[in-house]
Design goal:
heterodimer; A: Lipocalin; 2 helices; 11 strands; elongated; B: mainly alpha; two-stranded antiparallel sheet; 5 helices; 69% helix; binds protoporphyrin IX containing FE
């Protein structure tokens, strides 16, 4: 849907820029969307991004740095019981583990596809750290000039297994694999 | 039509509570077994709420029945043809009172221990009766499971007794 509003930038193919660029998070407009099977249906919802440190090197993607922290207590699912179950002690245990963090360890530009990259990193949920791989795509606002990097949207997808983190509550009713679609909006720091 | 029970007849209050509970308990045995085995999804999640709501109403009715029977004691059972039937009936009646307190309480304890709010009628949140803990949750539901099977057994015995007697026992509970 938002692919329609944002045009793909061929950022990685853009002309050389000397230093990596430092970005600040637009927390208001960023969110981590999730989906998890629930019987014949799905539980969906979103978790706000609390903070992020993002440095992007458009020439050498590997030099980029990304670390993100999520606000577990403010996560919301599509119905109240699911929100309570998810943030409660048997799943994310927000009281004891108020944040989920992600730190990228390796960012690999996907050759020939422009603004796409594969980002490997460590995600910490419930205090348990596990590797995860996210597919990332960078977009610039619709109507902005090619090569414009002031404001960007980073769209990431991936999945985690609840059981890897001990977030196993209601595993008889709710699926193990949580699919993530993450939208982070960032502005170039002054 | 008298509200009060007499030495030989059931008043309408006792009868109304009896039949409301009879209907409720039989329906709940079916509903409970259904929700415990169905594939839970968005469309049927509300049945848990329905089960809890009716269960709490049945608990309230039982308390009402106990209070009412202090105020207006029910008649003694008519003597059966053999003494073991008298004591069987007595034990089944006593078991009903014990089970109809223990069954809803165990459901309430288990539901509260899951860490989710116990919401009835989609608006009233009952306080949890136990701390959030898997041990409390699984043991309370194990108790709920076993006691509901005992309750079903009592219903079978009770109905068999009521339907086989030809001494006006059933008529007395239906028409007073
Ligand atoms: C399924 C749930 C039921 C429960 C929990 C229940 C409970 C009770 C209890 C506790 C009594 C003792 C009198 C009292 O203290 O009020 C009683 C009496 C009676 N019940 Fe039920 N009952 C149920 C269903 C039925 C059904 C389906 C029938 C008829 C087929 C029935 C017929 C009777 C009769 C005839 C009496 C009077 C017994 C007497 O005179 O001693 N009950 N019931
Ligand atoms: C007279 C009242 C009640 C009756 C007769 C009743 C009966 C039952 C039965 C027969 C089951 C199925 C057990 C099984 O076979 O696995 C069940 C399950 C259940 N009951 Fe009740 N119940 C009553 C009250 C309550 C109350 C008050 C609550 C909560 C506030 C409750 C919560 C539950 C829950 C959550 C389950 C599902 C457990 C699972 O998924 O295994 N019940 N009930």
């Amino acid at each position: 849907m938002f692919r329609a509003i944002l045009a793909l930038v061929l950022i990685l193919a853009a002309p050389a820029v000397a230093a990596p660029l430092v970005y600040t998070l637009d927390a208001e407009d960023s969110r981590v969307g999730f989906k998890v099977p629930f019987g014949p249906d799905q539980i969906t919802g979103a978790m706000p991004v609390r903070s992020a440190e993002i440095t992007l090197d458009f020439e050498r993607a590997a030099r980029s740095k990304v670390s993100v922290s999520l606000d577990v207590a403010r996560a919301r699912a599509n119905f109240p019981f699911a929100t309570q179950a998810m943030t409660g002690p048997k799943v994310l245990d927000a009281a004891n583990h108020p944040t989920i963090t992600f730190v990228a360890t390796e960012i690999i530009a996907i050759q020939g596809v422009g603004a796409k990259a594969r980002m490997a990193g460590d995600i910490t949920i419930r205090g348990v750290t596990r590797p995860v791989v996210l597919d990332a795509e960078v977009f610039r606002p619709q109507g902005s000039a090619e090569g414009e990097r002031g404001r960007l949207s980073v769209y990431m997808t991936g999945a985690v297994a609840r059981s890897d983190f001990g977030a196993t509550g209601w595993s008889d009713l709710v699926g193990d694999e949580v699919t993530l679609d993450i939208l982070v909006r960032i502005d170039l720091a002054e | 039509m008298s509200a009060l029970n007499t030495e030989s007849s059931f008043g309408w209050v006792t009868r109304a509570i009896h039949w409301a509970m009879a209907l409720g308990v039989i329906a709940m045995l079916g509903l409970g077994s259904y929700i415990a085995r169905m594939e839970v999804g968005m469309s049927n999640l509300w049945l848990f709420g329905l089960h809890k709501s009716i269960g709490v109403v049945l608990l309230a009715l039982l308390i009402l029945r106990l209070i009412w029977h202090l105020a207006s004691p029910p008649p003694r059972s008519l003597p059966a043809d053999t003494p073991w039937k008298d004591s069987a009936a007595r034990w089944v009646h006593r078991s009903f009172y014990v089970l109809l307190i223990a069954v809803p309480l165990s459901g309430w304890v288990g539901s509260g221990a899951s860490g989710l709010d116990v919401v009835i009628f989609e608006r009233f949140t009952l306080p949890p009766l136990a701390p959030t803990s898997e041990a409390w949750e699984s043991s309370a539901f194990a108790v709920h499971f076993v006691l509901t099977k005992l309750l079903a057994l009592c219903v079978v015995l009770h109905v068999a007794g009521a339907l086989t007697r030809r001494d006006g026992t059933l008529r007395r509970m239906v028409r007073g």
